[in-house]
Amino acid sequence: MTYCLGIKIDQATIMISDSRTSAGVDNISTYSKMWRYGVPGERQFVLCSAGNLATTQSVIAKLERDVKNGASPSLLTVSDMHELAEYIGKVSVAVQAKAGGGGVFEATFLLAGEIQGSANALYMIYSQGNFIKSSSHVPYLQIGEAKYGKPILDRVIQESTSVDQAIVCGLISMDATLKSNLTVGPPIELYVLENGSLKLGQYRLFGEDDEYMRSLRNLWNTAMENAVDAMPSLVLN
Amino acid sequence: MTYCLGIKIDQATIMISDSRTSAGVDNISTYSKMWRYGVPGERQFVLCSAGNLATTQSVIAKLERDVKNGASPSLLTVSDMHELAEYIGKVSVAVQAKAGGGGVFEATFLLAGEIQGSANALYMIYSQGNFIKSSSHVPYLQIGEAKYGKPILDRVIQESTSVDQAIVCGLISMDATLKSNLTVGPPIELYVLENGSLKLGQYRLFGEDDEYMRSLRNLWNTAMENAVDAMPSLVLN
């Protein structure tokens, strides 16, 4: 399984992904599920994937090949994020069909980025190739093992949330998932794209023993215990 | 869908259940999923159910009929909680088989209670009639839509947790599920069995606009925002 999360707040778009790949509990491996591409000043993208690893790797290989071959559409020719989502959806459907189709080859993607002259956006691309955009009411999207990490996002994330808050909240959402589900595992990758800058994003990899993640987990556990203690007790009778 | 939660701490056993029943999003209704039975000074039980409503209602009807008819085994004749779990598992399997068997008639149960002369216990009874007991490492069990409400339990609940803390934590786990999933809904039922007392438990029903639940939700949302603010910011570069 996988857990990837995209948060689109006023100032930035943040992507977080785990790196565990499993075909059964005795066949566990580590693969990055985050792929970044950018031309500074012109276009910046980040793509996270969940589902069949052969499908997601083939999709990314095709995107890279189309750039190399000067094909159109490609990452370099699309003029807005909607067009890019449509292109990636088509590539994904074609890759799945080539493998024989069916549920086992399915993959879903989170796509975020910005192209000069058009708005930045965060999309979820379904295995059928269609896609949805994040909304201003719920400015985040998740793929994979999404349920464990959803409540903290529902309680905290708004468009006006600061970058620092959104990063902390996203990492806690990921940590809750790691803690509750064995099929999601480190390293964790984080990418922060500043909205409107068209600059390369800021990237951070958190390994198994990352000090910041360990400290965040401990502080958060203590904060949760303290928060429970601070709630009014229920008077039962 | 359904969400039921049992927490077995040193001082008490706590059960919490929602009341939404749905056969599709346009056929939603409200049924209690919590059933209590006790003979003060001798035995106290609480049973929560998830799955097919016809199955769970038939199981409870059969338990009541067996008591009325003086059958053995029955709620009045079993001598410990293990025997009770076995009996309820058998009744459940028989009820499902009568309806034709198969996934659609499945039901799972949380069973908690105590019988004079034997230890109190918390069990999860699977649709196949087999069952597991809560452990001292993870002193809680969940059935139904369990993922949203799991992280807060994983971070806070231990056997030494106080009754007040466990009630607050359990209600927050339920509220997280209500907030993130439409198929789990109020009223919420709470039952607290004091370990070793063999007294009737303390029961509380929380309706849609319950003041304590509303206040808990608001205070918790604020506590989460404050906790996120209090975490150390990640230094990215």
Return Rg of chain A in Å: 19 Å
- Which oligomeric state applies? homodimer
- Which CATH C-level class of chain A is it? Alpha Beta
Helix content of chain A: 25-40%
- One letter per element, helices H and strands E, the order of chain A comes to EEEEEEHHEEEEHHEEH
Distance between the termini of chain A: 45 Å
Find the count of extended strands of chain A (DSSP E, 2+ residues).
12
What is the residue-mean pLDDT of chain A, rounded to a whole number?
94
Count of helices of chain A?
5
Largest interface: A-B, 43 and 43 residues
| Anisotropy-based shape of chain A | globular
For the record, the CATH architecture of chain A stands as 4-Layer Sandwich
Strand order, main sheet of chain A: write it out.
10-1-2-11-12
Using the coordinates shown, work out and report the CATH topology of chain A: Glutamine Phosphoribosylpyrophosphate, subunit 1, domain 1
Residue stretches of chain A low in confidence (pLDDT < 50, at least 5 long) are: none
CATH superfamily of chain A: Aminohydrolase, N-terminal nucleophile (Ntn) domain
Total number of distinct structural domains of chain A: 1
Biggest sheet layout of chain A: 5 strands, antiparallel
InterPro entries (chains A, B): Ntn_hydrolases_N, Proteasome_sua/b, UCP009120_prtse
GO molecular function (chains A, B): peptidase activity
Keywords (chains A, B): Hydrolase, Protease, Proteasome
Protein name (chains A, B): Putative proteasome-type protease
Q: Can you put this structure into words, describing what you see?
A:
- 2 copies of one chain form a homodimer.
- Chain A is α+β, with helices and mostly antiparallel strands and 237 residues long.
- Chain A has a single domain (3-229), classed as Aminohydrolase, N-terminal nucleophile (Ntn) domain (Glutamine Phosphoribosylpyrophosphate, subunit 1, domain 1).
- Chain A contains 5 helices and 12 strands.
- In chain A, strands 10-1-2-11-12 form a 5-stranded antiparallel β-sheet, with helices on one face. In chain A, strands 5-6-7-8-9 form a 5-stranded antiparallel β-sheet. Chain A has a two-stranded antiparallel ribbon with strand order 3-4.
- In chain A, helix 1 packs across helix 2, helix 3 packs antiparallel against helix 4 (163-180) and helix 4 (163-180) packs across helix 5.
- Chain A is globular.
- At the A-B interface, helix 3, helix 4 and helix 5 of A face helix 3, helix 4 and helix 5 of B.
- Chains A, B: This is Putative proteasome-type protease.
- Chains A, B: GO terms for molecular function: peptidase activity.
- Chains A, B: Keywords: Hydrolase, Protease, Proteasome.
